[in-house]
Amino acid sequence: MNTLLWIIVTYVVICIAAYFGNRWFMYFPDPARFSPAEAGLSGVEEIELRSGDGERLIAWYAKAAPGQPTILYFHGNAGNAAGRAEKIETMRSGGAGVFYLNNRGYGGSSGKPTEKANVADAVTAYEYLRGAGVDAGAIVLYGESLGSGQAIQLAGRRAVRAVVLEAPLTSTVDVGKRTYFFLPLGLLLSDQYRNAEQVAKVTAPLLVLHGEQDEVIPVAMGRRVYAAANEPKKLEIFPRGHHSDLFDHGAWERVRAFLAGLPAGS
Is pTM, for the whole model, over 0.90? Predict the structure, then answer.
């Protein structure tokens, strides 16, 4: 009986710790603030925004060439803008604009990240672009890993040209269950990013990119998000791709071809 009691007590303590501390295991922000120039980027401006609740949001913005889209980029759960400088430069190579938002706690942005705050800040970034004269039909949402949740939820609220999801998860509950299968994560996780459910609200053209060798978010999750999405949609699987190297396998070329193939005005 004493052994059983200790097992129960230990399990309850773990559940309590998971409930109150789950965001510590979900977000790994690098708060260091670098300028685009320090990261080796020219023609990219640092933008400082204010969130609806007064937090400072740091973004990097490169304007699009005439007739080219602007990529509104939502990052994954670690790092900062400087760590994506090479990807940003690749996106700009064909004239596309890029607006990279550092979520709260990342890259000089103040505050702490939560799903509610991240989605609200995604709306703030979108409204900044609209206020800067970027047409809704020229905005392409790009959600990387955990950032796929921001892209999906924003696309369900605002008009955009298209949505691109790189290694999207079905939900953080599903990801967590791969390791913590013994915990009731649906009751414990504060931020669940239920992409497989919420993608049904997206009516813009959708492209899903996923690596067959992804060890963080299994390719099966990308397939499930794709299956739940509305048409028009396209799925690109990279047989040798892992979680963070899809650009090395030609992902951006696939994105450019997808966007170029969209009907005018879609």
Answer: yes
